[in-house]
Amino acid sequence: MRKLKLQMQVSLDGFIAGPNNEMDWMTWNWDNKLNEYVQELTKPIDCIILGRVLAEGFIPVWKERAAEKEADSFTHKMVDTPKVVFTKTIKDNPWENTNLATGDLTDEINKLKNEQGGDIIAYGGARFVSSLIKNNLIDEYHLFVNPVAIGKGKPIYQELDSKLNLKLIKATPFECGITVLCYKPAAE
Length: 188
What we know:
- The structure is a single chain.
- The chain has helices spanning 32-42, 52-66, 73-80, 105-114, 126-134, and strands at residues 4-10, 15-17, 45-51, 83-86, 98-101, 119-123, 140-145, 154-155, 166-173, 179-185.
- It is an alpha/beta fold and 188 residues long.
- The protein has one domain (4-13, 40-185): Dihydrofolate Reductase, subunit A (3-Layer(aba) Sandwich), CATH 3.40.430.
- It has an 8-stranded mixed beta sheet with strand order 5-4-3-6-1-7-10-9. A two-stranded antiparallel sheet has the order 2-8.
- A hairpin with a 5-residue loop joins β9 and β10 (179-185).
- α2 packs across α3 (73-80).
- The chain is globular, with a radius of gyration of 16 Å.
């Protein structure tokens, strides 16, 4: 069975964006070691899943970057990897190399996990990721903890009905100040 991995930047106090979607608190001057970590994380990935809101920005931005002369292999991976966008509102697919998933989230994810292929990575906004977490669909959490607290914002754990037990697999600090915490669901 394929694994679903979540890669998400978070503040020290657990937010993925400010209350008005501000992201000016994120560290983007990544060092080479952090870039290598992301390369390794995404190497076995052959499917990217996205919520509709993020997809509307994510897909065009990566496509635009890939058209640039200095586009690197990671940029091309983000464009060339097949994507599934979860949506209840889009009826006609506006993107190449992308399928729309309009059914039940758990059923759609389990169908993807049971297909042949490499791992799946999730990128998304607070609502999409919260739904993945609530439905226990994530197999590995890769939380890029930024060295900043923002006080209030958009959390990814607000839909939990009960406690979520996780097991720390590794914690990796990087020179740029980000520490990546890798967790998997703890056995009950």
